[in-house]
Write a structure and sequence with these properties.
The protein is α/β, with parallel strands linked by helices. It is about 35% helix and about 20% strand. The strands form 3 sheets. Strands 1, 2, 7, 8, 9, 10 and 16 form a 7-stranded mixed β-sheet that branches. The protein has a 7-stranded mixed β-sheet with strand order 6-5-12-13-14-11-15, sandwiched between helices. The radius of gyration is 22 Å and the shape is globular. The termini are close together. It comes from Amycolatopsis keratiniphila. One of its GO terms (molecular function) is oxidoreductase activity. InterPro entries: Amino_oxidase, FAD/NAD-bd_sf, Zeta_carotene_desat/Oxidored.
Length: about 425
């Protein structure tokens, strides 16, 4: 006798979506999460009246169809995620507005005229966020894709975006998933942020699912007809298990799967310093991309109080500094004080007065922040997806689609639930007992 129909490991958006959908189908699904809160890479920290998005920063009104349908079903209306209404600037000696907007093609947004023409051609072609491997670009890396074009295209557009949003290395990362995502989500002023924190969707799902937090899983064992989830001396048996954790974690928890894709699906780490300010700084754009050619320490500056006014108490500010991928390895094990000092010092030239305005710094390290869409992983993705649902251990997460966004996480959860629902519902026994 098993303890539960489906045990879902991971209370991020993918795992919670999976459990919620299974519950609707009549399955008994239980979510087990190592952390004390739900959300995974979409958690929000609440400190002294500040709402601090610790990893994911925004969503989109375009290209997020499954997310918006799920939100509506949960009773979370569009007003819960209002448009940011501001753009993104590129630093080239100063902040230059209009990145990824039509106006940027006219004003420059840090690009030369030739590079602007090359950028206008970027959006041509068919890109599929669900099957990025089908693109005509194949396994072309971002660096290889940019090589025939003006150097500004790489140095003042692609590299800052790739490194600043995902922590990717353009020489390692495939261009097709990047372009699929960029062309799907539309211009930055249409992007949105959940009013009450980026964990809004996770909290809404968790309210309708059975979630156990503070439950770190050590191993998942496939017994053929069922599976066991092991956590210290505790053991949960289930008819099926969904690993809704980053691919490297999934590979460690269930090494018996032996998938080449799981081995190749690496993740990039991210280090952030969230600065609680005594006054608002920055503007008019809510984010500033910083090319490696201009600053090799800070890759992105997010003015969270401009992203949504509720992110900081009235009259104060909240700024997030994201470390450049080149310095992340050494910052992962540095003290919080050293990380905050180094990032704040490097950002002072970008945001004058940042040091003096900072009341407190909160440092966050996310060792598995974004799936890294390497050409090798891209080549193996379709085969991995085709094998899903054939055993008692299944998988969910944005990495299943090699698309670092919450829409991919939601989509993967819906598909995992669909694969499992038809074969794990226990038959109704005499008397109505299951």
């Amino acid at each position: 006798m098993t303890d539960v129909d489906v045990a879902v490991v991971g209370a991020g958006v993918a795992g919670l979506t999976t459990a919620y959908q299974l519950g609707k189908a009549g399955c008994e699904a239980r979510v087990f999460e190592a952390a004390d809160v739900v959300g995974g890479r979409m958690t929000t920290l609440r400190e002294d009246g500040y709402l601090i998005d610790t990893c994911a920063e925004q969503m989109a009104e375009r290209g997020y169809g499954e997310t918006w349908r799920l939100l509506a079903e949960l009773g979370v209306g569009p007003a819960a995620a209002p448009p940011i209404g501001r753009g993104i600037a590129m630093w080239r000696g100063k902040a230059r507005p209009g990145v990824a907007q039509t106006r940027g093609l006219l004003t420059g947004a840090g690009l030369s005229l030739r590079a602007r023409l090359d950028a206008a051609r970027l959006i041509r072609g068919a890109f599929d966020t669900g099957r990025p491997e089908n693109s005509a670009l194949g396994g072309t890396t971002v660096a290889e894709f940019a090589a025939p074009h003006h150097p500004d295209l790489m140095n003042y557009l692609l590299q800052p975006i790739v490194s600043g949003f995902f922590g990717w290395d353009p020489a390692r990362s495939a261009a097709a998933p990047l372009l699929a995502l960029l062309t799907a989500v539309g211009p930055p002023p249409t992007w949105r942020a959940y009013r009450d924190g980026m964990d809004t969707l996770a909290r809404a799902l968790a309210a309708k699912t059975d979630v156990t937090t503070g439950f770190p899983v050590d191993q998942v064992v496939d017994d053929g007809a069922s599976a066991r989830v092991l956590s210290g001396t505790r053991e949960i048996t289930a008819r099926a298990v969904v690993l809704a954790v980053p691919a490297p974690v999934a590979a460690r928890l269930h090494p018996g799967h032996g998938s080449a894709f799981l081995r190749e699906c690496s993740f990039t780490p991210v280090v952030k310093a969230h600065l609680l300010l005594d006054r608002p700084l920055g503007g008019p754009d809510y984010a500033l991309m910083v090319p490696a050619a201009e600053n090799g320490t800070v890759s992105t500056v997010i003015f969270d109080h401009l992203k949504h006014p509720g992110r900081a108490p009235e009259g104060r500010g909240l700024v997030t500094l994201m470390a450049h991928p080149a310095v992340v390895p050494e910052l992962l094990d540095a003290s919080d004080e050293d990380v905050a000092s180094r990032l704040t010092g490097a950002a002072e030239a970008l945001v004058p007065g940042l040091r003096s305005a900072t009341r407190r710094a909160i440092v966050r390290r996310v060792r598995h922040a974004a799936p890294e869409a390497t050409p090798r992983a891209l080549a193996l993705r379709a085969g991995f997806e085709a094998d899903l649902g054939r055993g008692v251990v299944d998988y969910a997460g944005d990495w299943v689609f090699l698309s670092p966004c919450s829409e991919a996480a939601v989509r993967s959860g819906l598909r995992a639930a669909r694969r499992l629902a038809g074969r794990v519902v226990r038959p109704v026994e005499e008397g109505g007992a299951r």
